[in-house]
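[Amino acid chain]
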Amino acid sequence: MSATEWIEACEVDDIEEEDVIRFDRGDRTFAIYRTDKGDFHASDGFCTHEKFHLSNGLVIGGVIECPKHNGRFDIATGAAKRAPVCVDLKTYPVKVENGKVFIQI
């Protein structure tokens, strides 16, 4: 897979506003987010604190809250925003074409 290859992750309608879904590709897991403004973002799927899957978390504006210990990350940048998380999430470029969400991994 080349560095410029875009992978179809889901349909736009698969994610409600202020929500997150899980996307698995091979042995990797990602989280695909939709903000309250309709913007899409993607990150690694597991919290950097205790590897709990973020798709079970809560999206509030531009933040994902991990369901395990309520740590928070900025979904656009991956920045750790609230303890106990202190390591940022890796984020990925996202584009929307013809009603489909693609991520570059």
